């Protein structure tokens, strides 16, 4: 059994480890930009371009923050990225217009650095290919605008290009290093975890198997008895014994199916008490195979991931070390049919605000469909409409 | 010997610290080279600056292995010296085109934040290094008489690095923790799925062999001839022998159900022709099966599931529906295949099907689901039964 192959460039985000750090860095750089813009304004007279540059940069920052929010609808991300690009282009243009030989070139340089760092934020939920493309685009735009700036020093163009590409280079290296670490550690740990869970499930099923084997031996004996004289009608005593054995066998087979696949997988992980299923098992069993890994991962990230904050500081993944749920974070799961083939999946998470949920959870939910989230005083509810078997 | 703590203790840097140190080295080197290229240096300045740069390289390299205080002080002093040697008076003015490299050399000192521990002494030491480099930057600007924009850039770099130092390790731990949960979910899904597949196959196998035969015996063989009963017992015996052969060891022969592996799927062929063979086998006086349409070639998995499911539907119609005739209609679109099995028997309410009736649930519904398709039952008491089997043939 192997881990599903992970493409190095096409996996959808989150690309970077912390959105908060990126947002902080962007905000600090915006303040720096604003400071330099004020200096430019003092020297440049009444021309308002520096104000426009700062304003557009701030708007771009807000859009980038929105585009990096895990709870943002995935189909809105393209629009947000395009809006961000237009705003940044406008800000760079204004910075260029505000720059004269009298006002210096620091503003346009700092603007290039701000744009390059905010690429990391706006691409947080994108893939590596998109991130690199956006980085290159910003590098070209910033350097191009600098070269047409009045009084620009051609030597400094290389400096602007360096500043524009540096954050993208650093970001790409960090993503590639982390993915390699995931591939390397993940495959080995998955294998260990599979062995441990297989041993655990073997121990729990052996009792049931013994019962089944005992019933089967009795059936064998009955068949042997009937085979000696298979003339109909059969002896009523044999018929009665056959009916009893059939009842026993049905009962044993029913016990095999007392849980649905989701409950069984969660109980295997010791998370059975953390999730409550508010629907008959039949609907859960009808969920398409292709959706099941994401549904299980999402449910586990809700039950275990919510208690993660501040409790899992080891830094490295070890099998079986995922945090356990607490009573405060109870999950209710409800599955129902929707439309012709689809399903509507609802998770109710008590005592948790949506912003505290794991970013990876949103990636899993987005692979199922379009998640809709609602917060209230008691917790949050997530609804996903997912496609059926024809998907 | 008393163990040294706080700022004096040597510690092996973490991933975030190493990454930041390498980044600082790159920025300092590139900015220095740029400044050196744009300035006309005196020979002694040239030699001195490259000696300082070499020393900086050495200190940064040492920082990758241990962040002891001499390395940190060496980096701080080296960066200030480098800025002083390479940065001309014009370059310290934000109006100058090459102002940014000067600021970047000083901003590279912010990597020292990565070595800050959670002790007061370490925090104080880091704060002192910041004040030292900030003081130099401000004084340098004041001496020349320009606005201290480089000090603002320096402060911005330190704030960003501080955010990375404080939030990075925790964010990384959370990331790995969430990744651990996802990995565990993958493992749990695989193990649970394997168990359920094995249990499902066992249930279908037992239903189609032992349970079917037991039901006939339970009715004292009513509806079956002695020959048919013998055939059923022979079929059951063959299955038992096969199951025993598949068991891993003699000691666990009795518990061989879980060890039994699903049979190999049938070779792909014409589904209609194979169904006609089943129809001939099931037909008897007063009960007939007619096959209409065709599906063309199907994948082996889909064909095996459809064959077994249709067979179960025909058997149910014969035994429970009291219908004399069953129609099986095959059709196919580009990538979907569907089979409709209908009879005009007594019908039943699908929502009231007893939970212990495994025939429809396991041998039809679950079997089609496991093959990537689905089955739907349309029936009502007195109105016959239609079962629609659908699958994606890809």
State the main characteristics:
heterodimer; A: 391 residues; alpha+beta; Heat Shock Protein 90; five-stranded mixed β-sheet; 60% helix; 9% strand; disordered N terminus; B: alpha+beta; 10 helices; 5 strands
Order of helices and strands of chain A: HHHHHHHHEHHEEHEE
Assembly state (oligomeric): heterodimer
CA radius of gyration of chain B is 40 Å
Low-confidence stretches of chain A: 1-11, 306-325
Main beta-sheet strand count, sense and barrel state of chain A: 5 strands, mixed
- What's the main sheet of chain B like? 5 strands, mixed
- Rg of chain A, rounded, reads 30 Å
Which class best fits the helix and strand makeup of chain B?
A: alpha+beta
Put simply, the count of helices of chain A is: 11
Overall 3D form of chain B: rod-shaped
As laid out across the biggest beta sheet of chain B, the strand order is 1-2-3-5-4
Mean pLDDT of chain A: 80
User: Strand fraction band of chain A?
Assistant: 5-15%
**Unreliable parts of chain B:** 1-7, 237-265
Number of folding domains of chain B? 2
Strand order of the largest sheet of chain A: 1-2-3-5-4
Report the end-to-end length of chain B measured between terminal Cα atoms: 73 Å
- Class derived from helix and strand content of chain A: alpha+beta
Largest interface, C-beta closer than 8 angstroms, per-chain residues? A-B, 120 and 99 residues
Distance between the termini of chain A: 25 Å
Estimate the helix proportion of chain A, in percent. Answer: 55-70%
């Amino acid at each position: 059994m192997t881990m599903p192959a992970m493409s190095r460039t096409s996996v959808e985000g989150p690309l970077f480890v912390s959105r908060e750090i990126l947002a902080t860095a962007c905000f600090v750089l915006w303040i720096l930009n604003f400071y330099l813009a004020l200096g430019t304004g003092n020297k440049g007279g009444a021309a308002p371009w520096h104000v426009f540059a700062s304003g557009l940069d701030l708007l771009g920052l807000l859009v980038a923050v929105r585009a990096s929010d895990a709870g943002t609808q995935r189909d809105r991300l393209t629009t947000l990225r395009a809006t961000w690009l237009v705003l940044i282009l406008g800000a760079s243009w204004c910075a260029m217009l505000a720059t004269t030989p009298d006002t210096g070139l620091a503003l346009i340089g700092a603007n290039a650095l701000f744009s390059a760092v905010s690429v990391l934020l706006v691409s947080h939920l994108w893939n590596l290919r998109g991130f690199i493309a956006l980085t290159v685009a910003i590098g070209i735009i910033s350097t191009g605008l600098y070269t047409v700036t009045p009084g620009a020093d051609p030597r400094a163009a290389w400096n602007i290009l360096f500043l524009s590409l540096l954050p993208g280079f650093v970001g790409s290296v960090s993503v590639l290093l982390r993915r390699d670490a995931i591939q390397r550690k993940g495959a080995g740990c998955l294998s260990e975890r599979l062995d441990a869970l297989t041993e655990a499930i073997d121990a729990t099923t052996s009792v049931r198997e013994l019962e089944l084997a005992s019933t089967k031996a009795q059936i064998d004996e009955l068949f042997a008895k009937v085979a000696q004289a298979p003339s109909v009608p059969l002896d009523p005593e044999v018929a009665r014994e056959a009916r009893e054995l059939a009842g026993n066998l049905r009962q044993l087979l029913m016990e095999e199916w007392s849980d649905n696949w989701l409950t069984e997988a969660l109980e295997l992980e010791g998370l059975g008490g953390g999730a409550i299923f508010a629907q008959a098992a039949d609907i859960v069993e009808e969920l398409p195979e292709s959706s099941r890994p994401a549904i299980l991962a999402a449910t586990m990230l809700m039950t275990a991931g919510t208690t993660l904050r501040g409790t899992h500081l080891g830094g490295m993944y070890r099998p079986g070390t995922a945090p356990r749920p607490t009573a405060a974070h109870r999950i209710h799961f409800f599955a129902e049919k929707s439309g012709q083939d689809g399903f509507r999946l609802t998770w109710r998470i008590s005592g948790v605000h949506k912003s505290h949920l794991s970013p990876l959870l949103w990636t899993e939910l987005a692979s199922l469909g379009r998640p809709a989230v609602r917060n209230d005083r008691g917790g949050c509810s997530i609804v996903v409409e997912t496609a059926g078997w024809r998907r | 010997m008393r163990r040294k703590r706080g700022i004096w203790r040597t510690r092996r840097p973490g991933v975030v610290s190493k990454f930041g140190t390498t980044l600082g080295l790159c920025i300092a080197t590139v900015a220095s080279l740029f400044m050196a290229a744009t300035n006309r240096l005196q020979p002694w300045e040239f030699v001195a600056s490259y000696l300082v740069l070499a020393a900086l390289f050495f200190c940064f390299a040492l920082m990758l292995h241990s962040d002891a205080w001499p390395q940190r002080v060496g980096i701080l002093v080296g960066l200030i010296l480098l800025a002083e040697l390479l940065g001309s008076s014009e370059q310290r003015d934000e109006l100058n085109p090459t102002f940014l490299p000067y600021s970047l050399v000083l901003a590279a000192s912010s990597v020292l934040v990565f070595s800050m521990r959670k002790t007061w002494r370490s925090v104080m030491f880091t704060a002192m290094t910041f004040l030292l480099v900030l003081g130099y930057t401000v004084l340098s600007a004041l001496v020349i008489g320009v606005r201290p924009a480089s000090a603002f850039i320096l402060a911005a770099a330190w704030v960003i690095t501080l955010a990375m130092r404080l939030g990075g390790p925790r964010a990384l731990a959370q990331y790995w923790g969430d990744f651990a949960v996802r990995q565990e979910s993958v493992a749990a899904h695989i193990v649970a799925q394997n168990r359920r597949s094995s249990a499902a196959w066992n249930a279908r196998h037992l239903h189609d062999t032992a349970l079917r035969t037991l039901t006939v015996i339970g009715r004292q063989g009513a509806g079956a001839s002695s020959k048919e009963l013998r055939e059923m017992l022979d079929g059951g015996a063959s299955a038992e022998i096969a199951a025993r052969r598949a068991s891993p060891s003699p000691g666990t022969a009795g518990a061989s159900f879980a060890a039994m592996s699903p049979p190999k799927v049938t070779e792909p062929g014409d589904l209609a022709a194979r169904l006609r063979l089943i129809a001939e086998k099931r037909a008897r006086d007063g009960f007939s099966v007619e096959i209409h349409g065709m599906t063309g070639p199907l994948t082996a998995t889909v064909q095996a599931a459809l064959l077994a499911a249709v067979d179960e539907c025909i058997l149910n119609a014969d035994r429970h529906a009291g219908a004399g005739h069953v129609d099986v209609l095959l059709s196919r679109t580009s990538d979907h295949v569907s089979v409709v099995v209908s009879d005009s028997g007594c019908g039943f309410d699908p929502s009231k099907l007893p939970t212990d009736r495994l025939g429809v649930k396991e041998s039809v519904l679950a079997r089609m689901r496991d093959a990537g398709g689905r089955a739907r039952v349309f029936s009502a008491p007195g109105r016959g039964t239609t079962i629609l089997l659908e699958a994606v043939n890809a």
